Amino acid sequence: MFELEGLTKRFGGLTAVDDLSFTVDRGEIVGLIGPNGSGKSTVFNCTMGRYSVTDGSIYFDGEEITDDDTHEVVERGLSRVSQESNPIDAMTVAANIKLFTLPNSVRTMRGGGDEETIFEYAARVDIEDKLHEEPGSLPHADVRRLEIAKALATEPEMLLLDEPFAGMNQQEIDELVTKFETFRDEGMTMIVVDHNMGGLMRLVDRVVVIHNGVKIAEGDPDEIAENETVRNAYLGSS
Ligand code: ATP
Ligand code: MG
Questions:
Q1: Is the ipTM of this complex over 0.95?
Q2: How many of the other CB atoms lie within 10 Å of CB of 127?
Q3: Ligand 1 pocket member 83 (CB < 6 A)
Q4: Is the pLDDT at 111 greater than 60, yes or no?
């Protein structure tokens, strides 16, 4: 479904992602974890066509997408929730979601911009009663939910979630984990980035750990929780 093959991204003398390879099968949820600055968001930025790739290849659905621009990647069925929320505060929640629909999508053949579909996207993350509010008036967790609704509005087959639990309290995290489980049951493939195992532990099928851009471990959550190399990487970075 999704594959990174030797992905490398350099910024001048800094190697942010270093010869990284892993695959994600259809319907799988993979956790991508690592300390601050280990290259997690850079992997997403390269995948989404935000950053050009220095070396290596990215495949989605059997096709190479390494040099695709963001629009092409989204049209293929990949969508990302960024680490930072960036709603337009002068527009309602509904209008923010509508901006991300692909009314002329070749892939989905769906006119996603109508009121009913916008309501559906919002309802999938429980913000359907906030559609007429402005994002600036919403609590943090609802703004993050809006970011997820925006990502869903492109009708993706695979979601890249960059720190979706950040700044949420335990109840909000639990609710979001349940949502992601529902998405999975409906066939969504996901990569979830976090600093640590936290909310990820229960959710993911497999974990990839990176440190300084290099993959240092991969395995099921229980194995990773016990892994000495992983523990040392976190100790060394804090
Ligand atoms: P965090 O957990 O803090 O979000 P991260 O694992 O997402 O960290 P990245 O944001 O991918 O880490 O950054 C990896 C490295 O690449 C860092 O050293 C960062 O400063 C650098 N970097 C990322 N984007 C750029 C950029 N546009 N220009 C220069 N350096 C960058
Ligand atoms: Mg990041």
A1: yes
A2: 23
A3: yes
A4: no
